[in-house]
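## Example record

The block below lists the input lines for one assembly entry, exactly as stored, with component labels intact.
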Amino acid sequence: MKEKIFLVENARRGWIMNIINIYGLIFLLPYYVLDIISPFYVFLYSIIFVIAMPHIASKVSLHLTREFRKKLISNLSQRNLLIVSYLGLYGEVIPQVSQLFVPIMISLSLVINFFVMNPFLKLFLTFILFFGLVYFFTYRNIKVVKTRLNDILAYIRSQ
Amino acid sequence: MSDELDKLESILEKKIKDEPYGGILKIPKFSIFEKISTSLRWLYFQFENMVKSPRNIHRLHGTIFGLSLVLSLIVLINYPLIGIILIIFSIISQIIIFPESVILFISFAVDVMVGLLKRGSLASICTPKEIENKKRSVEYVMLSVSPLLITIFFPPFLYIIAIRVISSIFTAISTIAYYYLSSALDCWNSPLREISESDLFSTHFWVSIFFFVSSTIILYSLVPCGFSQIFSWSIVLLSYAFISTILAIPSFQAAIYITTYWRGSETRKMFEEIEKQIRWF
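Predicted C-alpha cells for the full assembly:
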C-alpha cells in the first residue's frame, strides 16, 4: 500500500508542478506587458486577477484534475506499468526543479538585465546560467532515478 | 590417358596464343574524366536514394518549403505584389505536391502545442510508432520554419517582425519536441540501457540547443528598449519547457527498463510453470 501511495503521490506532484509552472508563467505575463504601458493597468489587472482568476483557475484546475485522476486510476487498474513507473520517477525530481529552477532563472535574468552591458554579453551570461542549471539538474536527476529504480522494481515484484 | 591430356594441353596452348594479349586481358585504366564522372554518378545515385526514401521525403519538402518562403520574403521586400503572389504560390504548390503537409501541421498543433497546454510539458508516454509519427510532423515543421530565422537580417517591417516572432516560437518549441522524441526513440531501441549523461547530451541535444539559442536570439533582437522583462519571461518559459523535457528522459528510460524487466521475469515464471507441468506428466 505504501508503495502505491508513493507512486500516486509522485505522479500527482509531477503533474501539478508542470501545470503550475506553465499556467503560472502565462498568468504573470500581463504584469510585464502592462507595466510598460502604465502602472494603472497593472493595478487594474491585479484587481481583475484577484476577483475573477480564482473562479477561472478553480474551473480549469477541477477539469484538469478530473482528467488526471481518471487517467491515473485507469492506468493503475490496467497495470499500465510503463506510465505509472514513468510518472512515479518523474514526479520524484520535477518538484525540486520547479522550486529552484524557475525562481533562479527569473531572479538572475532580471539581475543580468539590471546591469548596463553589451546585449550579447547579457545573452551569453543568461545562456551560461541556463546550461549550468541544466547540467546540475540532469546529473541529479539521473542519480535519483537510478536510486528509485530499485524501489519501484520492488513494488512491481510485490504485485 | 596421359597422351590425350598432353594433346589437350597443346590445343589449349595454341588457342591461348591465338587470343589477343596472350589470353590475359589487360585491366582497362580509366581516365581522370571517367573516374570523376563515375564518382559523380555514384553520388547522384546515393542522393537520389536518400531523397526518394520515405524517411526523408517530409524533411526534403519541409526544407524546400522553408527556403521558398525565405525567397518569397526577399522578393516581397522589394516588390510587394510579386512577393505576395510568390508566397501564395509556395503555399499552394506545397499543398498540391505534398498534401501530407497539411496533416503534419495539424498533428503538430494538436500533439505538441495543445499537449503543452494540457500537460504543462512537451514530454509524454508514446509507443515507438506514435513517436515516429509525431517526429515526422515535428521534423517537417522545424525544417519549414527554421529557415525563416534568417529574417533577422531583413529590414524591420511589421510583417517581417511578425514572421520573426512566429518562426522563433515555433522553432524553439519544435526543437524541444524533436529532442524529446529522438531521445525517447533511443530509449525504446535500447530498453535495458543504463542511461548516463553522455546519452542525454548527444548530437540531438547540441542540434536542438543550436536552434533553441538561435530562436531566442531572434526574440531578443525584437525586444525594444525597456521591454527586456518580456524577453526574460519568454526565456524562463522556454527554458523551463526545455529542462522539464530533458528531465523526463531518464524517467522514461527507467520506466521502459522496469517494464521490460518485469515482462522478462513474468515470462520466466510462465516457463517455470510450464516446465513443472511437463515434468509432472
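Chain B touches chain A through 50 residues (CB under 8 Å). Chain B has a mean pLDDT of 82.
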